[in-house]
Amino acid sequence: MFLLFTVAGVAVELLHRPGPAPELDAGPYELVILEGCVIEPPSLSEDRQQVLLELAPGARARVTFQLKDGETPPSLRYGQRVEVEARVRRPRNFRNPGSFDYAAYLARRHTYWTASARSGATVKVVGEECGTAIWSGIYALRVAGLERLEQLFKNQPFETAISQALLIGDATRLEDAWKASWRQTGTYHALVISGLHVTVLAGFFLLLLRAVRMSELAALGLTALAAMLYALVTGANVPALRATAGFSLFVLARYFYRRRQLLNILAAVAVCFLLIDPRQLFEASFQLSFLAVAAIAALAAPLLEHRCSPLLHGLSQLADSDKDLHLPPEVSAFRVELRLIAETVSLYFRVRKLWALRATVLPAWVALHVVELFAVSACVQLGLALPMVVYFHRLSLSGLLANLIVVPVTTWLVPLGFVAIAGGGPAAALTGVLLRFVQMTVEWHASWEPNWRIPTPPVWLAAALALALVALPWVVRKGRAWRWSGLSGVALLLVALIVHPFPSQQESGVLELTAIDVGQGDGLLVSFPDRTLMLVDAGGLPSYGRQMRARLDIGEDVVSPYLWSRSIKRLDIVAMSHAQADHMGGLASIVRNFRPRELWVGGDPDPAAWPELDQAARMGGLRVVRLWRGDKRELGAARVEVLSPDGAAFNRDSNAQSLVMRITLGERSFLLTGDIERRTERELVEHGQLARVDVLKIAHHGSRTSTTEPFLDAARPAFAVISAGYQTSFRHPHEEVLRRLRERRVAVFRTDLDGLVTVRTDGRRVDVLPAWGQQQSWFPVSF
Fold first, then answer.
1. Distance CA 730, CA 388 (A)
2. Which residues pair with 445 in a beta bridge?
3. Claim to verify: residue 278 and residue 301 sit in the same structural domain
4. pLDDT at residue number 775
């Protein structure tokens, strides 16, 4: 049997192994004409439109049209063959430990390029229609649903965005602030299309069919088809397809009069999915979807089956005392207690005994269902604890309570929303009210939810917790002693996961500078000999003349995962070199995630230039330290000297405000320069501020306006680190700067080519370790 499964696994892997990535004859800065088939309805937000083009079978490009205020987006639909002029790039990952493999994620969806079309770009429809009639019909339903919701909630952006995400699966209009509260409270699963939505709609549709006296099997069959159609209309994501496949298997088992076992259905669905595409096993959505159902089936269902379900069954025909003889003793005792309560109510309030019985049954029924929902929520949270920490570094406490409200209300919202789409009127008004109520519920829970951001757990802890959770359903059935031992073991491992009592990956007595790959920006982690941690800048997306709102938070999505991968829970200091988006854009998230004590800023910048960071600093109680030329700090055996800005001649130009720091340990020193340009460099040389340094962080990402020859001659670095984006329109670093460095025999390391670059010194020896260098080497360059 083992040999059979091994051979089957190898066969599936060979069948699905991807071939070489397709090539496109276009340079990174070249404007090309793309011709392809629109294979999905375009997604539109306030500042951009995105469309997926299939240039050739299995070779797709995601094209983004940048929109100015009031600009009408190109009129596109599924099945059109179009030509568009755009600049094309291959997706590229941020090359840091802990980073998400975005390029592989897109490649699994056959998307190998991203393209950017300028505002006002002309789209030309060419050739015959492409696509299929089936998908044309499915996407027509999707577009019609989205447009109908936009009409129902006209001039109500919140209701429009939430209803489109909740009912149709289009989350492009959701604001980051709205999504943050749902993620923080563990209720985001109710906002995006999931198995819950499919199940609720299937139940509602089945109820309608049975109400018109359709036979059970026919109603189940039609409901399964309707569920499949809904899953396809909403984007065919894994949770929806999983729920649809599970329901279809349930119908099949019902047809053959087979006993339905949730775990068996889940296993069958998982095998089918993995046979179709085994690479889904490594995707977070697949794992979370199946683990949630597995937790319900293996933990919640047996618990409820032996606790709540018998009591709920005992509520029926409460007045019939003869029924007690045929029920388990605990259920009979429960019924007797309820009848005594009902009799007391009847005598005290002088009402009929039948009314008193009904008044007693209702709160008991509600209480038992609340307990059921709480138990299911707790089991799901327990089952998903490990992947939630590994993938998202968060674990929700308020989700246990928030889901008690959000899930039932969402259960009513989904069918009500589709009634509103069909008829509008009062249903639409009630839908809007419930949407606001759910959002207020989520935001209230988020207001007291502790912002637990948990570093990546050690491998041994993750393995131990996974094994403990797998064994828990078996252990709890072995008896009371085994049950409490198993629960105690899981609880201890869970506490260790949350508290994370493990030291950060630092080396005492060593000064470390790590240039994190943040694309076109700066993000520098400094570890001092006394283990003090400082982060200088946290990247951000450049916004020079740019109107598009960034959807990627470099601080949250790039810098934080790297810090968590090093077991870092807190920073001591964050420093903002200057108030430009590519340096300080991610710092607000860093402040929220790592709760530093101090915020260092150069000179006296206006907080209005960095409002989000200023607000995060105020909420976190940070002490803002304004530094000027001549300020010094001692951190262990290391010394930090501020060389700029100069308080006597403070320049309001943002680059000239850059905080310039020299960090010295023993005989070695690092110079951090922000985005200073030739004028500030000349002032540093003329004032005698510069001395020989061993490692120079090249200013302004290698722009030709910085790193002048007199500056290099004064600093005389042995190593240079350049933080720049890969093949960006800025074309940093400039060839002239690289020439100056080559002429002075400076060893250059670049984040755009080498990825994350780490420099360490003990005060005498200097080691430079690029994560991905041209030599593909981890051996240190030393002197």
1. 37
2. none
3. no
4. 35
